[in-house]
Specification:
2 copies of one chain form a homodimer. Chain A is built from 16 helices and 17 strands. Chain A has 414 residues and is α/β, with parallel strands linked by helices. Chain A folds into 3 domains: 171 residues, Molybdenum Cofactor Biosythetic Enzyme, Chain A, CATH 3.40.980; 79 residues, Alpha-Beta Plaits (2-Layer Sandwich), CATH 3.30.70; 153 residues, Maf protein. A 6-stranded mixed β-sheet of chain A has the order 2-1-3-8-7-6, with helices on both faces. In chain A, helix 11 runs parallel beside helix 16. Strand 14 of chain A pairs antiparallel with strand 14 of chain B.
Chain lengths: 414, 414
Amino acid sequence: MSVEAEIITIGDEILIGQTVDTNSAWMGKHLNDAGVDVDRVVSIRDTKEAIIEALEDVKPKTKLVLMTGGLGPTKDDITKYTLQDYFGGDLVFNQKAYDNVARIFKMFNKEVIEINRLQAMVPSSCKMLLNEMGTAPGMLFERNDVYYVSMPGVPYEMRHLIKTHVLPLIKEKLNAGVVIHRTILTQGVGESFLAEMIKDWQDELHEEISLAYLPSAGMVKMRLTVKGRDEQFLNGLIENAVSELLPQIEKYVYGTEDDTLESVVGKLLKDNNATLASAESCTGGNIARLLTTVPGSSTYFIGSVVAYHNDVKQSMLDVRKEDLIAHGAVSEPIVMQMAKGAKEKFGTDYAVATSGIAGPDGGTEEKPVGTIWIAVSGPNNTITRKFSFGNNRLRNIQKTSFMALNMLREELMA
Amino acid sequence: MSVEAEIITIGDEILIGQTVDTNSAWMGKHLNDAGVDVDRVVSIRDTKEAIIEALEDVKPKTKLVLMTGGLGPTKDDITKYTLQDYFGGDLVFNQKAYDNVARIFKMFNKEVIEINRLQAMVPSSCKMLLNEMGTAPGMLFERNDVYYVSMPGVPYEMRHLIKTHVLPLIKEKLNAGVVIHRTILTQGVGESFLAEMIKDWQDELHEEISLAYLPSAGMVKMRLTVKGRDEQFLNGLIENAVSELLPQIEKYVYGTEDDTLESVVGKLLKDNNATLASAESCTGGNIARLLTTVPGSSTYFIGSVVAYHNDVKQSMLDVRKEDLIAHGAVSEPIVMQMAKGAKEKFGTDYAVATSGIAGPDGGTEEKPVGTIWIAVSGPNNTITRKFSFGNNRLRNIQKTSFMALNMLREELMA
């Protein structure tokens, strides 16, 4: 039996689209790792009515309710008073909470004003959870064997309270089991083709293992999950499933767990002691940007020419004018010359080049918007591929970058 | 009376923390703009039981329920079958949905396989909503004057369906009233200083108009909102307020509504009939990428050199070796030479250059991580600025790009 939890985020900012709720995903991940399943996330307004309604909506099987938000010092933060109402008791002064407020104010050389003194008042029905990262204390209520934790919505304060109070509570009071995830990252194959390819494997999959497909631009993540009590047994089960799966989809797998295509390419370059440059037309620098988001990328990434104008392709990458005239910029000869030119000019072992019509305008009958050429040039040879993407400029840039990095990955592994 | 909506996101990925829910904030914003209040966001598992429970939990006053997720072609996507069960009817083949699937597969030169043919099957109880961005159609159900819309969870597919189907539905069927927003984009001034500056104006603001400050990296958005029935009256009200506000903060305003710094810079370049190049070290191509996200940017953006390695700064931008040795790459003389070199090499009117220590490593006592130099070179002069940002690599890249574009904007307006 797994332990079920629910998250309630309080505050209008998510509902009106002012803030993206990153807290819930963070809590979900950390609870999950601790063997607790988040069964539901509910985002509500910061009104007394909405908070009480959400508390009453909590499912019978839920053992842990995590609430964030509505704990600031200003008038519109009403979570504490609502919880006092709901769980009973008086609002009492808490010396430890006050000392913490005073410490924080002293750190910023400020006097504690009345409005902040109020933050040290907590309902007598709760256990105060010391929040060393901020002035609003956390609160733990218990009713009918269900634990309710109220925390500020400020991400680093919430994270601190989860680590110092909630995870220990889960360990001590809730008898949570083990959850193991394995994530496999694939590229260059659609969800449905992937599913078709591994149909037999999936049919034979141990019933304890669940499989999810998470597609996003240009890639599909596959996630295997197993839950239970016997960690060693579960580990064996999932390792076994993964080792049976991988050979079947080997050519599409570019990484596992938290890998990114750019970090995988970076690692391969490092392992091969090789260097890289890029020559980008339609991707406009996005490939260089992705590569340089990786810390330490300066050891293998030398530089890039963004050759947006055709003159630049000639002057900086030695692309031949007669080929530009004969074939146009979006063509195999040009993208090939761009890659070779970049390799030459930057003195690298590898270079990747892109040329295409990102859109929304600029397409022709022969070369519609979304027509993309990619070249990867290595120490021994240069490969090219043509793609036909859609009409969305940003997606075309993104997809082209992913595909280019993947072609490079394949070359590095060849 | 406002129209209330609820969002239900279906899928384990948010609950286990694999995906941050950006969809809900996007929907919240766009519904809000259309006069609809999102009252609650609920994220649930992709099980039949959880979906039905969530549908039954919808509040009585809710008029619109937006569901995302669980519509892929694979076995773990069960939203469609659950909705068919819940709303009744048979699963029927929809020719338009099929044609769309076939069109998309043809675009990628792929055969439609059986599993994708199934995507063209929709419950007879729904109206199929054509999803031109993907193979899973949207579905619209109606029961007791409440509209239920099911959409894929892939952000660009969801956005497409909201724009082409949900917003028109709101306009036609839900009497949502008028909401008018005006957004003013400022940079170079903090939220509290801005508030102080316009205190009198704000005190005199018509009570129907609300004002929100939305700060993010390097900028503050101000949003004025007015709601009601009489569009002409409301328009006059808000226009009046804006025209009184603007002169007071003129020097900080870089745009309005959906402007971005890169689109504003692009417009200024076009208006000035001027061209631009970039020479990027620490930003790794991000400035070029931002500039080229703007459709039509090829008319003024010529190209970029990402000079990640110092040799590239010399060979491609004519930076002097002796200055590199004397001052280091992160210095005023170097960033200045990079900008001038880019302007020269690309033959442009303007060039922007960056050199800095993005981190997490590479800092020294004299030049800690976050030390950034930016130069903008124009037809007549070259200006430079030094910044000291923090330790976060991605934020340093982002902030540097933003500041560089803003310096360029100021030069273009000077």
